[in-house]
């Protein structure tokens, strides 16, 4: 059992985004880190058809004593990591509450077929209204600066760990990144992770 | 993947339910595993195949679930423990083998089948409950409530299979298959060489001596029911059936599988632990009647919680009827009473709602003012329809189909099938598909439509199939079309993978499940040998493809085949194959909202890599998503989308 403190039983993390953004990899990393810290953890991702550009949500339930069901109860999220703004708002609508902490990448991904996307400032305002503890992290922007949008999710992982809301640290995360990424990719991903930590410290 | 073959009993690892199932089969010492990919079950065989050589297992992607079941059957007959995995639809395909095999049973080595159902149809086009199939087949059935239990149950299922000489089923659901959680590993079997041998046992009139072939069916059918009774006796003592709660609960919940944790969570959330007891059944068919009867006698009120059909609910109510008048005071709640629905996925919140009503209590998930604000705030959240990926060759194929059918002008349409191209009946496929049923049904239905000429039918019919589906179930329909001279065009969307379920290889790819090279079953040669008129196109050569399609459509009569060959964009990305174009929009040429095209690229073509630059109301390329396939350049009427050769 973990020696680290858990603020609530179970502690519920939600990662929301759009299929293709890499939420499955992200939730697997977080899950592996929590397991290594001695927690009981269940990680439920959206699979199948929705992976193709649909709205996707990963539910991560953390406990010191038991395994809970896969999906977060309505209104019971403790942290929402939003990879995309309207998806963050969607998750808040269902799982938000006055205490929820939100970390959000404000870069929109527009729905296909010309569906209207609301005004971004309006979305950001709605998010901040539903969570006074909202932090914006320009992850896609930073990833593009690094030369590839693929780093967006690892930057966000850095921000999530750097926000000190979960019982995991950079030290827990590093061996997991090392196991997953070979050679030069590891270097780039560690850089992305560090960038995320830096961004959240400033946010 | 490495942890799957790790010989560290007692170590805890994070495993997806499907991986835990695979580990369970490996710990049980299987020698053969066969499956056809189908979400939510696909990762089971992928996982086994990844360590197959190391663990001395023959693991294969069979062409369909029936063959997979037969492959496993053959192994079991020769004394090798065998395993099969499939999604709920697969059980339909495979059932015909089992209904016959059950007349005699398995060999000395057990055979276990894992079926993962999909409540809510999250990765399916139905939400069938496969447990009913198990019941009519007369096979024992187990339902795990977690990844850990799935692993243990698979192992135990071999003991059951060997004790009663029947194939034993383990039923998962999407949440069990796809949830990753802590799993404690067990021991790996000792490596001992086992020689496979097919014993020559056949006596037409004696089921005890005839192991693999049945004689007169009533003689052979009787022992099947005796085996099932034996399974029931075993199940009465199973520790997979557990009760949690007071001795005489005000309400008894009877549940199974993934719903178990919904029930415990709901009872916790309502702090109703002193009023409510939970009987969790791990063995759901045949029903452990004595155990259930004992618990029915402790209460007056029962609530059933289970995924999809009221399977346990009906079986328990049938038992209760047989126990009358002892059970006459019982009130039953569940799907029949309308407290839960016999469709869509269950959840802790749905169980809470049912309990609130039955117990007459209250529950508030979050602050009411917040709740109102949250509900108001999400009104601006747009729907996010699913889409084909940026660079998907299917988008090009559907564009060509739409164009060719329009040019032909006889109201032609597509009979769709199962795979990513199932999106053909929605916006990403430009609403071209009009039917979608089982694997291979597009070609089958087209066979029927293509022989209606004498009834005045002259609409062109295009049957669509993917490459993997082609080998799975389209081959017989193609033979049928050629033989019966049915008039339709079969489009085979050959993207070099079973893309929708995770890029598994198939007979056309030249790869085995283990990654080793395989003989290629050449689909073009197969179609020609069958006597069909065959052409091959690259859908990204949009103009040529459209012309080829139109000429095939005009050639009325007979079964014609076009193979649309282009690798799945996600497979390209995995193999680090980049497309040759870098796309940009010429802002001068793009007329935006003033162009008569009505946003053809962003609104109709709908590639995720295209967006509207809102400041100037003109098309733009989303650099984070565009992969440079170049398709949009071909459809822009103002030639404003430019492809530059990037490599």
Give a structural overview.
The complex is a heterodimer of chains A (203) and B (647). Chain A is built from 7 helices and 6 strands. With 203 residues, chain A is an alpha/beta fold. Chain A has a 6-stranded mixed β-sheet with strand order 2-3-1-4-5-6, with helices on both faces. Chain B is of the alpha/beta class. Chain B is globular, with a radius of gyration of 28 Å. Chain B has a 7-stranded mixed β-sheet, sandwiched between helices. A 6-stranded parallel β-sheet of chain B has the order 16-15-17-18-20-19, with helices on both faces. In chain B, strands 9-11-10-13-14 form a 5-stranded mixed β-sheet, with helices on both faces. The chains are: A alpha/beta (203), B alpha/beta (647). Chains A and B meet through helix 1, strand 2, helix 2, helix 3 and helix 4 of A and strand 1, helix 7, strand 8, helix 9 and helix 12 of B. Strand 2 of chain A pairs antiparallel with strand 8 of chain B.
Jot down its keywords.
heterodimer; A: 203 residues; alpha/beta; Pyruvate-ferredoxin Oxidoreductase, domain 3; six-stranded mixed beta sheet; 7 helices; 6 strands; B: 647 residues; Rossmann fold; seven-stranded mixed beta sheet; six-stranded parallel beta sheet; 21 helices; 24 strands; globular
């Amino acid at each position: 059992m973990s020696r680290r403190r858990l603020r609530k039983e179970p502690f519920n993390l939600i990662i929301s985004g759009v299929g293709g953004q890499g939420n499955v990899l992200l939730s697997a990393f977080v899950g592996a880190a929590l397991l290594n810290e001695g927690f009981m953890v269940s990680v439920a991702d959206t699979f199948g058809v929705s992976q193709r550009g649909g709205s996707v949500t990963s539910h991560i339930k953390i406990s010191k004593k038991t395994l809970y069901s896969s999906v977060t109860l309505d209104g019971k999220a403790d942290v929402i990591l939003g990879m995309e703004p309207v998806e963050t708002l969607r998750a808040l609508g269902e799982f938000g509450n006055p205490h929820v902490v939100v970390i959000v990448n404000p870069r929109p991904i527009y729905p296909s077929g010309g569906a209207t996307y609301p005004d971004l400032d309006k979305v950001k305002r709605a998010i901040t209204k539903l969570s006074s503890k909202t932090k914006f992290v320009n992850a896609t922007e930073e990833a593009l600066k690094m030369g590839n949008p693929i780093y967006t999710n690892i930057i966000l992982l850095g921000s999530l760990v750097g926000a000190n809301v979960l019982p995991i640290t950079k030290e827990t995360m590093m061996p997991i990144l090392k196991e997953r990424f070979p050679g030069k990719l590891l270097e780039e991903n560690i850089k992305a992770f560090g960038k995320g930590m830096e961004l959240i410290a400033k946010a | 993947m490495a942890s799957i073959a790790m010989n560290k009993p007692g170590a805890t690892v994070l495993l997806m339910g499907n991986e835990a199932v695979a580990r369970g089969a490996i710990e049980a010492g299987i020698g053969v595993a066969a499956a056809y990919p189908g979400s939510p079950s696909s990762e089971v065989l992928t996982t086994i195949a990844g360590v197959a050589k190391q663990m001395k297992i023959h693991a294969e992607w069979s062409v369909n679930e029936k063959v997979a079941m037969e492959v496993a059957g053959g192994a079991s007959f020769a004394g090798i423990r065998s395993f099969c995995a499939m999604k709920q639809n697969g059980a339909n395909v495979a059932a015909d083998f089992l209904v016959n095999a059950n007349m005699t049973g398995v060999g000395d080595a057990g055979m276990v089948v894992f079926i993962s159902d999909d409540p809510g149809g999250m990765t399916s086009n139905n939400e069938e409950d496969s447990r009913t199939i198990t019941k009519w087949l007369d096979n024992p059935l187990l339902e795990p409530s977690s990844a850990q239990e799935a692993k243990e149950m698979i192992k135990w299922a071999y003991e059951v299979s060997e004790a009663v000489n029947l194939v034993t089923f383990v039923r998962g659901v999407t949440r069990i298959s796809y949830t990753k959680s802590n799993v404690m590993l067990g021991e790996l079997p000792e490596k001992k060489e086992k020689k496979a041998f097919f014993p020559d046992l056949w006596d037409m009139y004696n089921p005890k001596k005839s192991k693999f072939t049945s004689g007169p069916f009533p003689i052979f059918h009787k022992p099947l029911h005796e085996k099932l009774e034996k399974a029931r006796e075993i199940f009465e003592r199973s520790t997979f059936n557990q009760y949690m709660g007071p001795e005489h609960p005000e309400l008894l919940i009877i549940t199974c599988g993934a719903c178990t944790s919904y029930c415990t969570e709901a009872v916790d959330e309502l702090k109703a632990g002193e009023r409510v007891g939970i009987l969790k059944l791990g063995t759901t068919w045949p029903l452990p009647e004595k155990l259930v009867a004992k618990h029915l006698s402790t209460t007056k009120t029962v609530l059933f919680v289970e995924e999809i059909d009221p399977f346990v609910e009906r079986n328990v109510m049938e038992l209760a009827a047989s126990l009358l008048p002892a059970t006459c005071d019982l009130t039953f709640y569940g799907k029949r009473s309308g407290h839960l629905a016999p469709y869509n996925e269950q959840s802790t919140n749905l169980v809470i709602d049912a309990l609130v009503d039955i117990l007459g209590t209250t529950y508030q998930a979050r602050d009411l003012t917040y709740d109102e604000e949250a509900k108001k705030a999400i009104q601006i959240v747009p729907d996010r329809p699913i889409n084909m990926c940026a660079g998907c060759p299917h988008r090009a194929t559907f564009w060509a189909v739409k164009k060719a059918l329009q040019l032909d002008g006889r109201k032609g349409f597509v009979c769709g099938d199962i795979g990513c191209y199932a999106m053909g009946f929605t916006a990403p496929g430009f609403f071209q598909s009009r039917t979608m049923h089982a694997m291979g049904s597009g070609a089958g239905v087209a066979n029927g439509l293509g022989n209606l000429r004498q009834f005045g039918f002259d609409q062109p019919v295009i049957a669509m199939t993917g490459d993997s589906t082609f080998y799975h179930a389209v081959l017989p329909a193609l033979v049928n079309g050629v033989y019966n001279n049915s008039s339709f065009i079969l489009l085979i969307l050959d993207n070099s993978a079973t893309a929708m379920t995770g890029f598994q290889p198939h007979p056309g790819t030249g790869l085995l499940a283990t990654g080793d090279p395989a003989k290629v079953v050449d689909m073009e040669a197969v179609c020609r040998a069958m006597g069909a008129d065959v052409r091959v196109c690259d859908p990204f050569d949009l103009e040529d493809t459209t012309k080829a399609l139109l000429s095939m459509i005009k050639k009325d009569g007979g079964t014609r085949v076009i193979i649309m060959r282009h690798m799945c964009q996600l497979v390209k990305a995995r193999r680090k194959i980049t497309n040759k174009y870098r796309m940009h929009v010429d802002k001068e040429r793009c007329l935006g909202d003033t162009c008569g095209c009505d946003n053809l690229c962003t609104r109709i073509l709908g590639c995720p890599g295209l967006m509207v630059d809102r400041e100037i109301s003109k098309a733009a390329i989303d650099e984070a998503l565009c992969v440079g396939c170049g398709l949009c350049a071909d459809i822009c009427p103002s030639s404003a989308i430019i492809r530059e050769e990037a490599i």
